Amino acid sequence: MQLAVAPALMRWQRRGASAIVTCTLAQRTAFSFEGTDARRRRGEPVMTIHAQVDETGPVDAAQFAEEIATRDRPIVLRGQARRWPSVAAGLRSNEALVDYMKAMDRGRPAEVLIGPPEIDGRFFYDASMQACNFQKRFGSLSGLLDKLLSLRGEAEPAALYAGAAAADDHLSAWIADNPLSFSLPGAKPRIWVGNRTHVATHFDEASNVAVVVAGRRRFTLFPPEQVGNLYVGPFHFTIAGPPVSMVDLEKPDLERYPKFADAMGYGLVADLDPGDALFIPPIWWHSVKATAAFNVMVNYWWAEPHALSPMGALSHAVLAIRDLAPAQRMAWRRWFEHYVFDDAAPDAGNHLPPHARGVLAPPSEMRNAHFTAQIAEALSPPPTPAARKTR
User: Fold this and answer.
1) How many Å apart are CA 59 and CA 227, to the nearest integer?
2) What is the DSSP letter of 243?
3) Least confident of 116-120, 140-144, 153-157, 376-380
4) Distances (CA, A) of 75 to 22, 41, 49, 50, 266
5) First to last CA, the chain
6) Which tens digit of pLDDT belongs to each residue from 39-80?
7) Facing residues of 288 across strands?
8) How far apart are the C-alpha atoms of 297 and 343, rounded to whole Å?
9) What is the pTM of this model?
10) How many CA within 13 A on the CB side of residue 83?
């Protein structure tokens, strides 16, 4: 489908789609169904979660390291970036922020998602589940920023969204001008720019700090243990990286996804204004809705040192273990508990001399590099008898 907005977004090049308030976790929280006038007329429920994410004010480096980064629950850092020049420019006007960003634009192409007005800003699968309901183009951030300004007055604009653009690749002075007050080893600021858009409920394997620069964003979050109530989509064909929940938060179909009603009881919301930040621990599910006609956000992902992706291990476990006989699955569960999930798992190889521990050794780049090829070979299916004869 060719969208009329595409030519105005500079010279986009077609690319192929990619194949990715305190509330304790033990306590269900309040939610209700409320309808806007339009949705009442259509008989469509609107989900409202009332429980709020924990909040604090700005923190320094020591406070972040000791009190925030060690948390297993999200927390809002109100006003954390209120002194950023980018935030100050955005508070003056959208145009002032656009001028600020265009002055440092390196002109490198960024990936932009373009959806027709009919998707109402919700980037998702199409009805066939064989494609997405948006297209991808590439163009400069300056071109996108100008187009977003021009669309502000339209009642039903196309949905435009550039996500995870590395700041140092696209905006020359951003990092120096807009520093955090705490360090995040290995984290690079990434720019998110768009109009009224809605990113489906998903999770990140890494820790995350998101900072609103302009506009307003609502985060709706669910703890990791709600995975069974969120109806996760395909692992192999995702919207933009990690798997997403199939449930539309704005219009949850509880006949099709009945267990989502249980997840709602554990949901949390966080509304962020310019200068506010949100810390999200790894594996926390979150949906992100930008509610202004012009929105800019920056985020930072960082993982444990020497970390590898658990999603690959999970996918292989599904292939290799899930469909075994019950007795075999139980036996392998014991192995996983002993070597992976038990509190004493890091010491499971201590009866061996250090040079003989192999993959059971403490994490390090050397260990990962040495065993990656070996593990990749182990993940491959065994050769057929005919293939063995040809060797």
Assistant:
1) 31
2) -
3) 376-380
4) 10, 37, 16, 16, 15
5) 48
6) 444 444 456 788 999 999 999 999 999 999 999 999 999 999
7) 199, 219
8) 38
9) 0.85
10) 5
